[in-house]
Amino acid sequence: MSHRLREKLVYCTMHTILTHGYYILEDEKEQTIMKPYPPLGILYIAAYLENHGESCSVFDTTFAYKKDLIPHLEEQQPSIIAIYTNLMTKVNVIESIQKIRDTPTLSESIIVLGGPDLRHNIPDYLNTGADILVIGEGEQTMLEIIRTVQQGNRSEYAHIDGLAYRSDGEIIKTKERSRIRPVDDLPFPAREKIDMQPYLETWKTHHGKSAMTVSTQRGCPYTCKWCSTAVYGQSYRRRSPEIVASELKYLKDNYQPDSIWFVDDVFTVSHKWLEGFVEEVISQDAVIPFECISRADRMNEDVVDLLKQAGCFRVWIGAESGSQRVIDLMDRRVDVNHVSDMIKLTRAKGMEAGTFIMLGYPGETEEDIIKTVNYLKDCKPDQFTITVAYPIKGTSMYNEIEEDQTVELDWMKTTDRDREFKRTYSRKYYDYALRYVVNAVNANNDPMSLKKVKAKVKSWVHYTCMQLAK
Fold first, then answer.
1. What does each C-alpha distance from 296 to 125, 261, 342, 368 come to in angstroms?
2. What is the pLDDT of residue 8?
3. For residue 234, what pLDDT is reported?
4. What distance, in Å, lies between the first and last C-alpha atoms of the chain?
5. Do 365 and 325 touch, CB atoms closer than 8 A?
6. Distance between CA atoms of 310 and 274, rounded to whole angstroms?
7. What is the C-alpha separation between 261 and 337, in angstroms, rounded?
8. What is the pLDDT of residues 198-232, one digit of tens each?
9. At 206, phi and psi to the nearest 5?
10. Strands (DSSP E) along 204-324, which ranges?
11. How confident is the model at residue 236 (pLDDT cuts 50, 70, 90)?
């Protein structure tokens, strides 16, 4: 058989499967939350590949079981298996890679990984059995990988920007991939590649209304020390209001979601963009109730009014702490009083306001935690999430505590969430502190009732345990 004919056969039999590692049916914690969202990132890649003439399929693991993956891959016999990984799914993804490598009928499949966890863990991920790591945005890089493999080249990828791989035992990291500009050139995510109904029904069953996700931007221009910028970088690239409204109209006509979650880091970065967005969703009959994340310094009364006009029912306004000293340590660049004012204003305008709280940041003291409780009691957000700070590799926070880590982790079986370092108090202290904050705020906000009394008692008990655990 001639070399040209072999190349033609390789091209004709090429098949790429995109997948991930989120299994809600096998995760007890996620089953208590039941807020699954489709894998938007790989759906963007799937759409991009199809638009450039390369067929692919998506194996959506969300409502599958781990045991389903290998039989599906064996049936499809893909040339390339591309898997998205992040902090939440890392251990599952590594398990999947090992199972693929242990399956003789998949020995010829090339495993490609993408996601934010790769950039600062290249040797470790290559040691799992993965062949190629996509560093940064994946659309263009995946297209070039596929076309390289189609040409019969299964080992050398030095001409492709934005990836890492091994060659003769040596790790090769190619030139950084240029960021996609303009992002309006990206097609809508290929939602038709997966079954959207289980997502819509799960939300409807557990939360009373269905929800879908939309991305309007890539990157974040801010410098919060705990936040990873491993994929999109510290950039700001925005899809036009017209294009975003068109996507909303498409979702409204085809899926009829009750709500939208905008996945952007800061939805209100540009007030000019927001004005255009309001005009477009109204003119295109694309208004769908939505929630989004913002920053207090990018909000004012006009912005809140615009959000409401566009259909916003809840804004998450980040503070992370009620102590200005801790906020400054984080390089958040916001005024805690302004955050409080914007939460109150949002609620006064008839929308819900949520906020994020992080305990245990390096340098935080109990006085700062008390200030956080008082802040929450004062501004009364409708919802707040709370967690103990953890250092993601590659962030400024990680760099600051790297030498102070107190536990040596098995990388293959843990994530950055498991990293521990010398904090002001013991780790047990913060477990009690989380409960103390939640109950102290609930005791303040609940109307006089047995529930309020119970919350007061719990907050006192947890505060006492905090003192004992110092």
1. 38, 19, 6, 20
2. 35
3. 83
4. 74
5. no
6. 9
7. 27
8. 999 999 999 999 999 999 999 999 999 999 999 98
9. -95, -20
10. 211-214, 217-218, 237-238, 259-262, 290-294, 312-317
11. very high
pLDDT band (50, 70, 90) for residue 10 = very low
User: b vs e for 298-323, b when ≥16 Cβ sit within 10 Å of the residue's Cβ?
Assistant: bbbeebbebbbbbbbbbbbbbbbbbb
Secondary structure (DSSP) of 99-156: HHHT-GGGTTPEEEEESTTSTT-HHHHHHTT-SEEE-S--HHHHHHHHHHHHTT--S-
Instruction: Return the closest-CA partner of residue 34 out of 69, 63, 66.
Output: 63
Q: How confident is the model at residue 446 (pLDDT cuts 50, 70, 90)?
A: low
Cα–Cα distances in angstroms (integers) from residue 429 to residues 30, 70, 116, 438, in the given order: 25, 43, 30, 15
Amino acid sitting at position 184: D
E strand residue ranges, 305-373: 312-317, 352-359
Q: What angle do CA 96, 102, 108 make, to 5 degrees?
A: 95
Element (H, E) at 18: strand 16-19
C-alpha neighbours within 13 Å on the C-beta side of residue 164: 20
* Residues whose CB is less than 8 angstroms from the CB of residue 438 and which lie 6 or more positions away in sequence, other chains included: 386
Look at residue 218 and give its three-state secondary structure: strand
**Largest separation between any pair of C-alpha atoms in the chain:** 84
> How far apart are alpha carbons 265 and 237 in whole angstroms?
12
As a whole number of angstroms, the distance between CA 411 and CA 125 comes to: 10
Q: What is the CATH number of domain 3-173?
A: 3.40.50.280
312-328 pLDDT tens trace: 999 999 889 999 999 99
Using omega within 30 degrees of 0 as the cis cutoff, is the peptide bond preceding 198 cis?
no
Q: What is the pTM of this model?
A: 0.94
